[in-house]
């Protein structure tokens, strides 16, 4: 049984743990599916490349608003797909080959399961191998959840893992789910010419977002998609390419293709964690402390398999923490998940950091709300934007920012001053009044939302 100093399970953000400072160790990386993880192969990066393509198409179709004559005859799906994945597949292969070429790294391509404390069995195409390790990092990620009613139907369906690689777009696409993956991919396929129906059990899309964002976004896309909100799937029938979805109100949806986007599940249940003494939460996530250590000695975890905030930039930060703590056991550092920004790359874009207004009410926090519309600033006039807005939440008197939410063009960029403010404790009036805000830049919507806060009075 071969022994390694360090084994990393998962070559997504887990791959980022190992740098040249580990060259004095015998390191192994185990990857069951693809180097680069979900982000590179089926998540953040390809979806945003497609989302930008959709943005270009929508911009051209709406050019008449700005007195520009333009027309879109179509999106060449197969060409777009090949452009995206020609680049990303090359990045994946380069990452895999680069690791395999390092003298101190052994790459195992196969599925790992624990057979005991810091002991693994790896099922490979050429057989089974057992290894042990002094330290292990569990970074095996997550996978799309598929409800039994779909999985057991015997009929075909797609997930975010597969749908971006299809040969051609469907004429009618049904999407089960109303979160950010569903919203982004609805945008992509609608731009490519599909008629999109979204089936969501909640009354609004993007339910975890701030209530104002969720309400406005839902109303905005009603004209783009057939929304079946407050509905659940009760049966699937028909044939491949001609599906019939029956909902709990008796209505039906006819579709050529079904995309399931109801959430993601951590992959811990595939690793036989119990054999290693690794505890999990009720939702399947691996339990870690603030240093990213699991309940098993010598075992760390990071990313979607353990994180309360399953985002790539969080996994990357956790990877840096784990890398440091592996090499400096007497000087451990922590990972802070308090002020994590997030974005949804729909049209319009959405970004947020901190608490929502419903969070503030549930926690009974005294708070004030400041808002500003894109339509009320000069660059918003230039854009003819009638839907974008910025909303900030702050503590009265102290001016401490509690949360911020933006829906509109460049929202993931515009949110960053507010991320810095919440991270470093810059109070709202100081952020609004101390730095210059360029006129007539789009950032004035952030400035105006901060100025709209009534921190001394009642609101």
The amount of beta strand, in percent, is 25-35%
Instruction: Please tell me how large the radius of gyration is.
Output: 24 Å
Low-confidence stretches: none
First-residue to last-residue Cα separation: 68 Å
User: Main sheet, how many strands, which sense, barrel?
Assistant: 5 strands, mixed, barrel
Shape: globular
Mean pLDDT value: 97
DSSP E strands, number:
20
Q: Name the helicity range.
A: 25-40%
Provide the fold topology.
Elements: E1 2-9, E2 27-31, H1 37-42, H2 44-61, H3 77-100, E3 105-116, E4 119-124, E5 127-138, E6 142-144, H4 148-151, E7 172-176, H5 180-191, E8 195-200, H6 211-221, E9 226-229, E10 233-239, E11 242-247, E12 252-255, E13 257-260, E14 264-266, E15 299-301, H7 312-327, E16 342-344, E17 350-354, H8 357-362, E18 368-373, H9 378-383, E19 389-394, E20 401-407, H10 411-414, H11 416-424, H12 428-433, H13 444-451
Parallel strand pairs: 1-2, 1-5, 2-3, 5-15, 7-8, 7-13, 8-9
Antiparallel strand pairs: 3-4, 4-5, 6-14, 10-11, 11-12, 16-17, 17-20, 18-19, 19-20
Helix pairs in contact: 2-3, 2-5
What would you note in describing this structure?
With 459 residues, this protein is an alpha/beta fold. Helices cover 28% and strands 25% of the residues. The protein contains 13 helices and 20 strands. The protein has a five-stranded mixed β-barrel. A five-stranded antiparallel beta sheet has the order 16-17-20-19-18. 44% of the residues are buried. The mean pLDDT is 97.
């Amino acid at each position: 049984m071969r022994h390694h100093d360090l084994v990393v399970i998962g070559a997504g953000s887990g791959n980022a743990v190992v740098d040249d400072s580990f060259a004095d160790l015998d390191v192994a990386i185990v990857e069951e599916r693809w180097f680069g993880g979900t982000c590179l192969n089926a998540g953040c990066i390809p979806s945003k490349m497609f989302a930008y393509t959709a943005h270009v198409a929508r911009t051209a179709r709406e050019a008449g608003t700005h007195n520009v004559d333009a027309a879109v005859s179509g999106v060449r799906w197969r060409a777009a797909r090949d452009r995206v994945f020609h680049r990303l597949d090359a990045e994946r292969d380069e990452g895999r080959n680069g690791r395999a070429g390092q003298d101190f790294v052994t790459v195992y391509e196969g599925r790992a399961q624990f057979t005991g404390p810091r002991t693994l069995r790896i099922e490979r195409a050429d057989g089974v191998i057992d290894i042990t390790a002094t330290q292990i990092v569990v970074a095996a990620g997550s996978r799309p959840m598929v409800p039994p009613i779909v999985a057991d139907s015997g009929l075909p369906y797609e997930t975010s893992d597969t749908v971006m690689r299809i040969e051609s777009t469907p004429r009618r696409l049904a999407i089960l789910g109303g979160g950010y993956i569903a919203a982004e991919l609805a945008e992509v396929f609608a731009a490519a010419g599909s008629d999109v129906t979204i089936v969501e059990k909640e009354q609004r899309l993007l339910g975890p977002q701030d209530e104002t964002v969720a309400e406005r976004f839902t109303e905005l896309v009603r004209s783009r998609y057939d929304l079946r909100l407050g509905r659940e799937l009760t049966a699937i029938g028909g044939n491949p390419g001609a599906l019939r979805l029956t909902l709990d109100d008796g209505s039906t949806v006819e579709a050529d293709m079904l995309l399931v986007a109801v959430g993601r599940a951590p992959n811990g249940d595939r690793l036989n964690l119990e054999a290693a003494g690794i505890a999990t939460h009720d939702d399947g996530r691996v339990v870690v402390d603030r240093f990213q250590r699991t309940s098993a000695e010598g075992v760390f975890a990071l990313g979607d398999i353990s994180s309360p905030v399953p985002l790539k930039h969080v996994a990357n930060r956790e990877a840096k923490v784990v890398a440091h703590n592996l090499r400096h056991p007497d000087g451990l550092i922590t990972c802070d998940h308090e002020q994590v920004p997030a974005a949804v790359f729909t049209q319009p874009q959405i970004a947020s950091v901190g608490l929502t207004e419903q969070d503030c009410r549930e926690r009974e926090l005294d708070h004030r709300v400041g808002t500003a519309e894109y339509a009320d600033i000069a660059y918003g006039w230039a854009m003819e934007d009638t839907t974008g807005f910025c909303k900030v939440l702050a503590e009265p008197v102290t001016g401490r920012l509690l949360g911020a939410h933006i829906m509109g063009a460049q929202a993931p960029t515009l949110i960053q001053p507010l991320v810095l403010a919440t991270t470093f404790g810059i109070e709202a009036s100081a952020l609004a009044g101390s730095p210059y805000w360029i006129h007539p830049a789009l950032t004035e919507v952030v400035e105006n939302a901060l100025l709209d806060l009534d921190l001394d009075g009642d609101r």
